[in-house]
Amino acid sequence: MRVLVIEDNNDIATNIGDYLEDRGHVVDFAGDGVTGLHLAVVNEFDVIVLDLTLPGMDGIEVCKKLRGEAHKHTPVLMLTARDALEQKLTGFESGADDYMTKPFALQELAARLEVLARRGKGPKSRVLKIADLAYNLDTLVVMRAGQSIQLNPIGLKLLQALMEASPSVVTRQDLEQKVWGEELPDSDSLRVHIHGLRAAIDKPFDKPLIHTRHGIGYRMVDPDAVPT
């Protein structure tokens, strides 16, 4: 398994790394929260060992950003010198999957990491992502910039069609077909529902993601990633 160890105590990080590497695992390291979050977002790890007390950004904040903003579900085992129940609950609330208090036995740590890694390889949620917008097709939860967005069934169908086609343009005819099938609505229905989708997805935020191609249709695209 590939493990990311985010720990500012060099001795602890080295001990963990040596123990895991001796058993055939690949280990990457970060000594502060900002670097650790970056590595966790841009790489794929099987499991993350995350210290609670870190320079730059503590483990709670790292875990919150990893789950809420980056939408990464890599299993996280949190380490801390504190053993208070409140600290443990705070760790779990931030998105941690397991918790160990220092000092700990390396054998137990490795065993817990292997369990988390196996669990993390289970069925994955189907999540569409564009910029800071995420739509979970299994739970029908829509989030943008960490905020929950409520959409009606037609809005969800339109959103799925636009996100799956992104960055391509979806014609009005194709959108109507995907949403209503053979029972096409009157000529204004699509425009009205697109307006409602924009009000929910774009209006509260700085950058619009839904763009009109006049006379053709619509597309959804990250303006920072693809020229409009």
Describe this structure in words.
With 228 residues, the protein is α/β, with parallel strands linked by helices. The chain folds into 2 domains: 2-120, Rossmann fold, CATH 3.40.50; 127-220, Arc Repressor Mutant, subunit A, CATH 1.10.10. Helix content is 40%, strand content 21%. The chain has helices at 10-22, 33-42, 59-68, 85-93, 106-120, 153-165, 172-180, 189-201; strands at residues 2-6, 26-30, 47-51, 76-80, 98-101, 127-130, 133-136, 141-144, 147-149, 170-171, 210-213, 217-220. The strands form 3 sheets. Strands 2-1-3-4-5 form a 5-stranded parallel beta sheet, sandwiched between helices. The chain has a 4-stranded antiparallel beta sheet with strand order 6-7-8-9, with helices on one face. The protein has a 3-stranded antiparallel beta sheet with strand order 10-12-11. Strand 7 (133-136) and strand 8 (141-144) form a beta hairpin. Helix 2 (33-42) runs parallel beside helix 3 (59-68) and helix 6 (153-165) crosses helix 8. The mean pLDDT is 88.
In brief, what are we looking at here?
With 228 residues, the chain is α/β, with parallel strands linked by helices.
What topology emerges from the helices and strands here?
Blueprint: E1 2-6, H1 10-22, E2 26-30, H2 33-42, E3 47-51, H3 59-68, E4 76-80, H4 85-93, E5 98-101, H5 106-120, E6 127-130, E7 133-136, E8 141-144, E9 147-149, H6 153-165, E10 170-171, H7 172-180, H8 189-201, E11 210-213, E12 217-220
Parallel strand pairs: 1-2, 1-3, 3-4, 4-5
Antiparallel strand pairs: 6-7, 7-8, 8-9, 10-12, 11-12
